[in-house]
Amino acid sequence: MSTPNATALVTGSSGLVGSRLVEMLIHRGAKHVIAFDLSPPDATLSARFEALGPNKVSSVVGNLTSPSSLSEAFSSHPNIDVVYHIAALVGPFHKKAAYMSVNYQGSINIIDACKKHNVPRLVYSSSPSTRFDGGDIKNLTEDSLTIPKKFLELYAESKAYGEIAVRDAHSPSLRTIAVAPHQVYGPHDKLFLPNLLSAAGDGLLRVFGDGTNLVSFCYVDNYCHGLMCGADALLNNFGGPTDCGGKFYIVTDGAARNFWDTLDSAGIALGFSSVCAKLHLPTILMLFIARILDFVGRVVGKKFKVSTFTVLMLTIHRNFSIANAMEDLNYAPVVEFEEGWATTIEWMRENWLPTWE
């Protein structure tokens, strides 16, 4: 961090990214971190925070959708230097009103709280899915990606609206930036790898399409580093040629990987049979099935695991260039993919795999 002894507030502090960000902020010299989340940290997370040192982390229970709750959290710790807004409602199974309430209105509430309490910097955790239109993305920078008129999923739509609100809030008194990872992974992950490897462990997972799609991955430490690079750039580059205020950046581990080979390596390392060696399911067939399920789901008010969105995400290229983040934010991965992937698989072997034995 460029501002040692800073006080930071992190929303979504119990999640994969938020909890690791709290730790890395303290490791890099932050004076104090307010860990804000809907529920108090569990015993494991409390121990992680306590290990950072006395009076380093304050856990605050609150709700993004409640302005009074946010105001109380901000008021209890005056002189906040930067807010990292990580919290979001994720997953494909919620109603639009719920996504909009948390991801859009919650972001507006964060902006209002920052203004009310004179917080000078706001870093918003966005998502590349806010730019997805269903087509391949092949080593593109953010300049080549626009927010579509029609979104592939409700989560992406609500995150895009939140990002727009943060972008429009940028000013000399509240400098803002949106930073997004792609396919974030790491120890304590409860979404990406557990969901796919659960299907692999059950013998249900199959490769969709020809299995050659390239995907950018982002280790959790690299993403947290990218978020902090964004905060530093807001402070150091204001008004300069690389002023990042109000802009959107994507950070990853660097070079893209074959999605299915990479996923298969994790499953094999955990003792599962190779997914790539099994029969592949044609993309056109899976899209046909997905569209039928999408229609049935709308009729009966249910969302199925196989949807047009999930099929697309498992078959298209999602390969992002980090050239802009490297230039404007001085970002570079701090952990190589091979190291991050190995660390993640080892953590899953020790903490997740026993449920399969």
Q: Percent helix among the residues?
A: 40-55%
Shape: globular
H and E order: EHEHEHEHEEHEEHEEHEEHHHEHH
The quaternary state of the protein chains shown equals single chain
Main sheet, how many strands, which sense, barrel? 7 strands, parallel
SSE class: alpha/beta
Low-confidence sequence ranges: none
Structure summary, number of beta strands: 13
Count of helical stretches: 12
Strand portion, in percent? 5-15%
Write out the strand line-up for the largest beta sheet, numbering strands in chain order.
3-2-1-4-5-7-11
- Average pLDDT works out at 92
Span of the ends, CA to CA: 43 Å
Question: How is this structure best described in words?
Answer:
It is a single chain. The chain is globular. The mean pLDDT is about 90. It has 12 helices and 13 strands. With about 350 residues, the chain is α/β, with parallel strands linked by helices. It has a 7-stranded parallel beta sheet with strand order 3-2-1-4-5-7-11, with helices on both faces. Helix 3 packs parallel to helix 4 and helix 4 runs parallel beside helix 5. It has helices at about 15-25, 45-50, 65-75, 95-115, 155-170, 190-200, 220-235, 260-270, 285-300, 310-315, 325-330, 335-350; strands spanning about 5-10, 30-35, 55-60, 80-85, 120-125, 135-140, 175-180, 185, 215, 220, 250, 255-260, 320. The longest helix is centred in the N-terminal third of the chain and has 21 residues, at about 95-115.
